[in-house]
Amino acid sequence: MVVVEQKKRFALFLATCDSEFVKKTYGGYFNVFLSTFGDEGEQWDLFRVIDGHFPDEKDLDKYDGFVISGSPHDAFGEADWIVKLCEVCQKLDDMKKKVLGICFGHQIITRVKGGKIGRALKGADMGLRSINIAKDNEKLRGYFGDEVPASLAIIKCHQDEVLELPESATLLASSEVCEVEMFSIGDHFFCIQGHPEYNKEILFEIVDRVLNMKLIEQEFADKAKSTMETAQPDRILWQKLCKNFLKG
């Protein structure tokens, strides 16, 4: 008898629209996420939740894991699609399905689990930031597979943050500008305030775009870009961490 191994199947809940730059350069954010978190032989499905596109409830069980992207919208908002996303996350929590929450996704999971989110206490954060990783955490040791780094560089791009962790959460990283940079809940929710999937050109294009929209000052834009003059995000380690969480 030939045993056909089932393909691992993942879903991306995209909570942002593709910018013209991302469309032209990468064919859309879906491909950015796929190249960061995907592996050969897997099936990845895209749901543009920002447009109200969700999987049927009966299909949730077909997936091994989910990724919730960042968004220009507030995770504490009451738009129909945000409320629906919270409801779906609650179901995924009940099912103990693996969910990787990034930026907006990290905040959505906080909301669903009873934590508190709001405007960042120290203001918006854009650019490369070094975050301090919790010491002696068994879970992180498992995900990194060897030495857990004391700190990791990640690209940040947010004006909201987690103000109070859900009671069931374990804090995994913090920084001088943001107390909750990363946390987990059980073995099925893993949340990161920064963007493991971003690179320098994606960040710079966002900075230019929000500057043109007069949402930030020139000085703030210059400062954000200057963080990447001589440094890079720890992309390989972030990939390892996220993939081992999703697929471990």
Automatic annotation (TrEMBL):
Source species, domain of life: Eukaryota
PROSITE patterns: GATASE_TYPE_1
Chief location of this protein within or outside the cell: cytoplasm
GO biological process, one term: proteolysis
Keywords for this protein: Cytoplasm, Glutamine amidotransferase, Hydrolase, Protease
Pathway info: Secondary metabolite biosynthesis
Name this protein carries in UniProt: Class I glutamine amidotransferase-like
